[in-house]
Amino acid sequence: MVRLTIDGFPVEVEKGTTILHAAEKLGIKIPTLCYIEDLLPDGSCRMCVVEVKNNGRTKIDTACTLQVSEGDEVLTMSEKVIESRRMTLDLLLSDHNVHCFSCEANGNCKLQDYAYEYGVSETSYEGAKSGGEIDDSNKFFRYDPNLCILCHRCVNTCTQLVGRGAIDTMERGFQSIIGNGEGLWADGTCESCGNCVQACPTGALVMKRTNKYRPYQAQKRVRTTCPHCATGCQMDLIVKDGKIVDVEGADGPSNHGLLCVKGRSGSFDFVDHKTRIRQPLIKNHETGEFEEASWDDALDLVANKFTELKNQYGGDALAGFACSRSTNEDIYMLQKMVRTVFESNNTDNCARV
Amino acid sequence: MSITSKEDLLKKQTEAQEKIDSYTCRILVCCGTGCVASGSMKIYEEMKRLCADLDGVEVVAQKDVPHIGIAKTGCQGLCELGPLVRIEPQHLQYVHVQIEDCKEIIEKTVLKGEPIERLFYKHDEKPCEHPEDIPFLNQQTRIVLEHCGNIDAESIDEYIAAGGFQAVVKAFFEMTPEEVVEEITKSGIRGRGGAGFPMGKKWSQVARIQSDIKYVVCNGDEGDPGAFMDGSVMEGDPYKLMEGMIIAAYAVGAKDGYIYVRAEYPLSVARLKLAITQAEEYGLLGDNILGSGVDFHLHINRGAGAFVCGEGSALTASIEGKRGMPRVKPPRTVEKGLWEKPTVLNNVETYANVARIILDGADWYRTIGTEGSTGTKTFSLTGAIENTGLIEVPMGTTLRHIIYDIGGGIKKGAAFKAVQIGGPSGGCLVEKHLDEPLDFDSVKKFNAIIGSGGLVVMDENTCMVDVAKFFMGFTQRESCGKCGPCRIGTKRMLELLNKITRGEGKMEDLDKLEETAKFIQSRSLCGLGKSAPLPVISTMQNFRHEYEEHILENKCRAHVCEAMKVYTIDPDKCKGCTKCARNCPVNAITGEKKEPHTIDQTKCIKCGTCMDNCSFGAISIK
Fold first, then answer.
1. Along the 353 residues of chain A, how does pLDDT read in single tens digits?
2. B481 with A150: CB under 8 angstroms?
3. CATH code assigned at A244
4. Which residue in chain A has the smallest CA separation from B475?
5. I want to staple A110 with a disulfide (CB 3.0 to 4.6 A). Which of A176, A201, A349, B327 is the partner?
6. CB of A178 within 8 A of CB of A145?
7. Helix B177-187 to helix B238-252 angle, to the nearest 10 degrees?
8. Which of A42, A91, A168 is the closest to B488 by Cβ?
9. What PANTHER family does UniProt report for this protein, alphabetically (chain B) (predicted)?
10. What distance in Å separates the CA atoms of residue B391 and residue B380, rounded to the nearest whole number?
11. Touching check for A9 and chain B: CB below 8 Å?
């Protein structure tokens, strides 16, 4: 074990622990833009610098990469540290299209938060912006290089967490942008899962959802299970004015914050869709139209029909097939009904994707 | 034929030496990059053609007509004087050889043994017959470059004849891997790639780690503007590099090696490929080398033109097929390098030292150079100097010795101003540093680095702000874009420098420049960013007055910065011929015929056409 102090508080951690993790243990938050838990640190944003004194020597280095040493005296908010973070933000803002009012990420932007926290209201540099055209080619989200701070969270998420590797840094130096190397975003191997969007700390990658909201307008977040396949990804539905406006991958045992394209972009729009069937419907044989009915009437009708079929042809004539979007409990109940009521073993479901 | 034991190698050495001795005359045409650029391949072809005729004569008429071998040698060192041709065994060095001279060389020197005086290099009017007579060459200590220019870079036999692979024999059969590492450690050699990390320490770290797979990687991605040392070694003596890598592989227990060569060095790639093929045919690479049980396979990887790939982790990422970007450390390359396996990564020159250290011992090696920086260092000497070229001198040699004794002083007798050392990652050394020893530690004190060894000499006609701008432009273009300080900071610095050289700078821009430079230097992720501001920092330190002149007086004393050039007509010299006025593209010059003319500075676009056209030398830049 290694003993050190962080902002004067003593802490004991295992050898090889980074200062960032040691600080976390003490509940001290160090700002990061590029850091992703569980991955080899990218170390590119330089926000997490801390001042470390040891053996009469002082150095300033990134907390996400620096491993603890015995006797370290770490300062996370010293004057030098703050000055360095201000400079980092100053440079980032000098190459950032600052139009927070109309930015999708307003209120949900780490660059904005830190710039506010460290009192950097505008850049002190004149000069060109790297810029570039907005890539609107993906159906579900868009990439605006004018807002990109090149933290590579999207790339690292896609490559190392999702395992798709659809995007990488293109060009070099000041002209660097994120792309797939083959033209537009949609031309590559991207599956539109949107985990990159969730990883983006600014408004460079945003979903093209029509339900606009600011994070602070959300009334509640509802933790739920993705309704699509049997993986059981955990997700948070974000509710504004009584309606679901967004979904975010949550840290569940099977998904660790990730979602697929169906989970992220196909799991809540139907809830409030105007053509959604909200009542049982029974077809009127005379007019040929479906008409609203009570649950009792509808269930009676179906029960009678199944009983008729069973009496006439036997249980083997019936089968029950559960949709993979059903929960395990519902699927279980369905097969139970097929076996005990239908007296048939013809039952299955498609939860194998 | 394959060489399967050390006895075989000795036999091959004797055979190869006998073959060389059997030549009565050998024409060595330098085919290093510098000489190729000045047309040495044509000389080579011509010589071959002429000698083919001679062979015809030999067969038919006389039995004792000289048997001529033409070797493609590596860089012989005097790039300024190319194409270079050396005649052995008379040991004559010809310079500036032209196609027309070939016939005369054959007729006089080759057939009759007569020297051709006009082709000799002249030092103080005195012809220098032999390479040793040329001050540029006779004041060097050649270890890395010992065979460059002396052997055929495409003949493994010549390398073997010159004692090649004997260090492998000694390492394999007389030393344990631990002893090899120990010898390298004892020699005190530090990596020649720039950082100067002790080579022995690196090797012993990799040797200590338990792993089935380890790699030996060579950094041949020399990308500094004005540097061509490693390229010259790869072109001129690829075998020496290979021998160093085989020994490294034995010492640390690696079975595979990679040489990462920059894309702009096609000749290096071709020579290395050939060298590897030859060595594989002889069994000097592959399984069970010399019957020792040691396996080592060597592969070549070509870079794709990114300067940052000279950085270790970017280089290994590039070999793996990923984007060449540095990653954070730890883990270090010695622990998790190529394909996350323990990896020895040294540069070309460093490996090229290994064979001699093993053969002659660490104690001998320590006698060369200084205590903290042992051995020699190759430098590519370029810029405003009489003799440009590749040199190798002991560490600790003074800049004065290099510039004035070896380099022959500043070109055209101009005044010395500075030397850019270490390329875009380095800084400038000035007059007061001339007598300081050049080694890893001393140069660092002056805000510069030895780096890979580029020496660009600058005279009074160089604007130091412009120099800083040039190097800043280079690193800004070559930044990989990963971390903010380097990606955005270098751009902002370049913009500030552009502003100053355009004559629009303000004094506070200097503070901003300094502040940004220090931030980039201390906060960048990798060595490229950390060293990128050095040219600005060191020129600001040594030539702050030039920066201030640009800002306060709108003056560029070297008359380099376009915006500050003021073309004026000397009324005493102007004859009123009207030529300047007629040629001025913006009609900025007016004046009556046969009367002195004047330039309207508000209209002048500083194109210099008037000065080029003036027959009386009446127009000058102020």
1. 999 999 999 999 999 999 999 999 999 999 999 999 989 899 999 999 999 999 999 999 999 999 999 999 999 999 999 999 999 999 999 999 999 999 999 999 999 999 999 999 999 999 999 989 999 999 999 999 999 999 999 999 999 999 999 999 999 999 999 998 878 999 999 999 999 999 999 999 999 987 788 988 999 999 999 988 878 899 999 999 999 999 999 999 999 999 999 999 998 988 989 999 999 999 999 999 999 999 999 999 999 999 999 999 999 999 999 987 787 889 999 999 999 999 999 999 886 65
2. yes
3. 2.20.25.90
4. A173
5. A201
6. yes
7. 120
8. A91
9. NADH-QUINONE OXIDOREDUCTASE SUBUNIT F
10. 6
11. no
Of A272, A292, A321, the residue that ends a domain is A272
User: How far apart, in whole angstroms, are the C-alpha atoms of residue B418 and residue B151?
Assistant: 35
Give the domain B565-621 fold.
Alpha-Beta Plaits (3.30.70)
CA distance A83 to chain B (A): 10
Given CA atoms B364, B367, B370, B375 in this order, what sign does their dihedral have? negative
With CA atoms as reference, the chain A residue closest to B474 would be A173
CB contact under 8 A, A150 and B525: no
Interface of A with B in 53-72 (CB under 8 A): 60, 62, 64-65, 67
The answer to whether B310 and B318 have CB atoms below 8 angstroms apart is no
Q: Provide ipTM, 2 decimals.
A: 0.89
Q: Which of A44, A49, A51 is the mutation pick for testing B, counting most B CBs within 10 A?
A: A44
Q: What is the dihedral of CA B457, B462, B468, B469, to 10 degrees?
A: -130
The DSSP output letter for B338 is: G
Token duo for residue B358: 């093993």
Contact between B116 and B105 under an 8 Å Cβ cutoff? The reply is yes
Asked if A44 and B483 come within 8 Å (Cβ–Cβ), the reply is yes
Of A41, A95, A172, the CB nearest to B488: A95
pTM over 0.90: no
Partner B contacted by A44 (CB < 8 A): yes
Domain assignment present for residue A83? The answer is no
> Which residue ranges make up each domain of chain B?
17-133, 164-366, 376-553, 565-621
Helix (H) or strand (E) holding B379: strand B376-383
Phi-psi map region of B131: left, alpha, beta (phi>0 left; psi -120 to 50 alpha)? alpha
Q: List, in sequence order, every beta strand (DSSP E) within B303-351.
A: 343-347
Region of residue B501 (phi > 0: left; psi between -120 and 50: alpha; otherwise: beta): alpha
Residue A38: which domain range?
A: 2-77
How many CA atoms are closer than 13 Å to the CA of A45, on its beta-carbon side? 28
Cα–Cα distance for residue pair B312/B527, rounded to 1 Å: 10
Measure in Å the smallest separation between the Cα of B326 and chain A Cα atoms.
Answer: 10
CA distance B488 to chain A (A): 6
Inter-chain CB proximity B481 and A43 less than 8 Å? no
Assigned fold of B164-366: Rossmann fold (3.40.50)
Distance between CA atoms of B485 and A91, rounded to whole angstroms?
7
For residue B328, the distance in angstroms to the closest alpha carbon of chain A comes to: 6
Matching CATH number, B17-133, of 3.30.450.20, 3.40.50.2000, 3.40.50.1260, 3.40.30.10:
3.40.30.10
Tokens at B510, concatenated: 């200097």
